[in-house]
Amino acid sequence: MKKIRILLSIFTLFALFVSCDKVEGPFIESIPIDTTDTNSNIVKRKTLILDFTGHRCIGCPRSHRAIDQIVASYGNKVIPVAIHTGFFAATTSSFPYDFRTNVGLFFGGDGATTSGYFEILETPAGAVNSLKKEDCTTNYASWSSLTAQFVNTNALLKIEITKNLSNSNQDVDVAVKTTALESLNKNLRLVVFVIEDSIISKQVDADADPQEIEHYEHKHVLRKALNGTWTTGSQIGDVLRSGTYNKDEAINRNFNFSLTGTDWNINYLHIVAFVFDNDTKEVLQVEEAGVWN
Questions:
Q1: What is the 3-class SS of the chain, one letter each residue?
Q2: Quick one: 47-290 is in which CATH superfamily?
Q3: Residue 185 — pLDDT band, cuts 50, 70, 90?
Q4: Residues near 249 by Cβ (< 8 Å), separated by ≥ 6?
């Protein structure tokens, strides 16, 4: 009987223990997952939009507004460059300010004797993350959907831009560092531009009344290329790496330019650097940095 009482006592204690610590399903603990990316080596790809335009191009402000909407949607994931080129970029007595550059002439010609690298016959026209001639389109309404293809993809390269001002802020030294985020074997070239925002000058606009706008705000206007020959038949930019580019390998390039003799406003100047595959003409990454900040 004593043994029975002992066994009953043990059974009772066990039953009480189990009843106090009853576990209900599910039997796998649910732990919130932090989806924040803490891997500093993962860099999202940015999108370069080359916007070929002209201050006498009556339809070009429509492409400008399309770009404004894209930037409003994607922020600094999109980097536009406005290149004044072709017939409607030429100056006249009514449109005396000259936005043209040798780069613009190279890409889009003068609208009379040459149509340039992209063979641009009319503006507005543009290319999204591509330097392939057939990817340059006059359909600016398509630029948004083209941009959407890139905004959430990972980049193969990281680009870092640093600046140093001297000579009372008239001379600008620029350092561009590119780093491979994975091992690559490509024919890569680098292009470095100086662009300027908030240039107030005349523009014709088909949707305005009157159509000639005296104080139009011209944005992300190409001012200068810091590398490349930019003559007919030449290559775009300079060779960055042809062949093996090892993961985490960094390549540094240095450039400089002067504001002396220009009317450029340093507060609105930016450096734009991009790398493209010279075989496919695909822009792999682009970055932008303000000169002043």
A1: CHHHHHHHHHHHHHHHHHHHCCCCCCCCCCCCCCCCCCCCCCCECCEEEEEEECCCCCCHHHHHHHHHHHHHHHHHHEEEEEEECCHHHCCCCCCCCCCCCHHHHHHHCCCCCCCCCCCCCCCCEEEECECCHHHCECCHHHHHHHHHCCCCCECCEEEEEEEEEECCCCEEEEEEEEEECCCEEEEEEEEEEEEECCEEEEEECCCCCCCEEEEEEECCEEEEECCCCCCCCCCCCEEEEEEEECCCCEEEEEEEEECCCCCCCHHHEEEEEEEEECCCCEEEEEEEEECCC
A2: Immunoglobulins (2.60.40.10)
A3: very high
A4: 179, 180
* Residue 218 structure tokens: 């011209």
Compute the distance between CA of residue 123 and CA of residue 83 in angstroms, rounded to an integer: 11
Q: What is residue 232's predicted lDDT score, i.e. its pLDDT?
A: 87
Residues 6+ apart with CB under 8 A from 265: 196, 198
Q: Whole-angstrom Cα distance, residue 27 to residue 20?
A: 17
By DSSP bridging, strand 221-225 and strand 184-196 are: antiparallel
Q: Which is it for strands 78-84 and 47-53: parallel, antiparallel or unpaired? A: parallel
Q: Where are the domains of the chain?
A: 47-290
In angstroms, the CA 57 to CA 97 distance is: 14
**Which amino acid is it at 133?**
K
| Cβ density class 91-127: b for 16+ within 10 Å, e for less | eeeebeeebbbebbbbbbbbbeeebbbbebeebbbbb
The pLDDT tens digits of the residues spanning 83-114 come to: 999 999 999 999 999 999 999 999 999 998 99
List the beta bridge partners of residue 49: 80, 128
pLDDT above 50 (res 14): no
